User: Fold this.
Amino acid sequence: MRQPDAGLPGRIRHRVVVVAAGAILLIAPAVVVGAGYGRPLVARHCAAPVGFDASKYLWRTTLVQAKGIDALPGSIPSPFQPNADRPGLPTLWSLLASWLHVSLVRIALAFPAFTAVCIGLSAAAVGHAGLRLPRWTVPLFVVATGASINVSRMAAPSYNDNLLVSAVVVGSAALVLLAAVTVDALTRRGGQRSR
Assistant:
């Protein structure tokens, strides 16, 4: 009869500690970045999103909710632009408002902080997987990128279209690099087994 492995509880404990440490390395800097963007809104009791484009995003999304995406072209007279060539944000906000059962204003308030955190986490994945930097650099990437001048310049005046595209591009780069690292590891493992 096979004896139970005496080291099993120790290995489980070790894995729990590793997973908890990894979660802290991701969650703590994400909270720091999110709080950096959300704190001024909470401290000033903002009831509406900040930025000169915020009302335009809310108007476009409300129009898309009421009449569909096809209503954007020609919806306002020239020289004003309804930005019908940018349907992503009104579509996403409409979906989020219906799925989460929250108002568009709340989504507009939270969106810059949320996308800044997404950009920071994606940059950390690029740094760790793509550049093969150690795990302790992950929080540095999250904070340095999520709170960078480039991201804050998009978030402060409410360039939400640009924030959305940045989050998608950096996130896609992270996924491509993670897939490449995974394929490389599987290829090496397969090569070692064939020897």
User: Anything to note?
Assistant: The longest helix spans residues 8-43. The mean pLDDT is 87. Residues 13-194 form one domain.
